[in-house]
Amino acid sequence: MVVKAASKAKRPSKEQRSQDILHSAREVFETRGYEKATVAEIAAKCGVVEGTVFSHFGSKRQLVLKVMEAFYEQITHQIETGIRDIEGARNKLFYVIWSHLNVVSENSAICSVMLRESRGVEHTFMNELNTFNRRYSRIVGDIVEEGIKDGIIYSDISIVLVRNTVFGSIEHYMWSMLHSNDEMNVDAIAEQLTDLVFYGISSESKTKVAKQAKDDAEVRQLIARLNKLL
C-alpha cells in the first residue's frame, strides 16, 4: 500500500497576506495608538516575522496610511452606494449624518486613533490623511450643490462652512463619547443636527423668515396707526 505524503497547507496569496497584515495592524493601532505600536507587535499578531511586514509595507507610516485608506474606502463606498436611492437634499443630508454617526459609534477605536494620533504626526502623514477625508466629506458638498441647483438651498451659502459644521459637530460628539464612555443616541442626534443644518441653509425657510419679518413689521405699523386714531 502506497501512502501519499500529507500535502502542505496552501500558503496564502500575496494579496491575502497583505490583508491579514492590515487587519492585525488595525487591531494593534486601535489598542496601542500609532506612536506606541511597533511593527514587531503587528508581525507577532499576524503570525509572521517583521521582514514579511516590511516586504508588503515599507514602513509603519505606510502601514497606518493603508489602514486608514482601507477604512475610508469602506465607509465612503457605503455612503456613496446608499445615497443613490435617496431623494431630496434634506433626506440625503440626514443619511450622511446618520451614517457618519454610526461609523463613529461602531468604529470608535480606529476613529480615536485618527483623532488623537494624526494631530501630532508628520506633515506628510496629515496631507495623505486629508486626501482620504476630502473624498468622504465631499459628499456633503455635492448635496449642497444639488440643493442650490434645485433652488431649495440659497446660493450664497458657504459649502465649506456647511461641511465643517456637519463633521465638526460629529467630531465633538466623538470626543465626548471617548471621554465619558457614553453611548450616542444616533437617531436623535442625526435628526437634530440635520434640522439644525438644513433649515439654516434652506432657501425656503429663509424666505419664510423674511416674509414673517415683513408681516410682523406691517402689523406693528397698523397697530401704531390705530393707536394714533384712538
Could you describe the 3D structure shown?
There is one protein chain. By secondary structure, the chain is mainly α. Helices cover 77% and strands 0% of the residues. The protein has helices at 14-32, 39-46, 50-56, 60-82, 89-106, 108-117, 123-149, 159-180, 186-201, 203-229. Helix 2 packs across helix 3 and helix 4 (60-82) packs parallel to helix 7. The radius of gyration is 26 Å and the shape is elongated. The termini are far apart. The relative contact order is 0.09.
TL;DR of this structure?
The chain has about 230 residues and is mainly alpha-helical. It is built from 10 helices and no strands.
Give keywords.
77% helix, 230 residues, mainly alpha
Q: Please state the CA-atom Rg, rounded to the nearest Å.
A: 26 Å
SS summary, helix count = 10
**SS class:** mainly alpha
Largest sheet: none
**pLDDT < 50 stretches:** 1-7
> Looking at the chains present, what oligomeric state does this protein adopt?
single chain
Please count the beta strands (DSSP E, at least 2 residues each). Answer: 0
Global shape: elongated
Let me know the average pLDDT. 81
Helix fraction bin: over 70%
What is the helix/strand order?
HHHHHHHHHH
Task: Assess the beta-strand content as a share of residues.
Answer: under 5%
- N- and C-termini, Cα separation: 123 Å
Furnish the topology, listing elements before pairings:
Blueprint: H1 14-32, H2 39-46, H3 50-56, H4 60-82, H5 89-106, H6 108-117, H7 123-149, H8 159-180, H9 186-201, H10 203-229
Helix pairs in contact: 1-2, 1-4, 1-6, 2-3, 4-7, 5-7, 5-8, 5-9, 7-8, 8-9
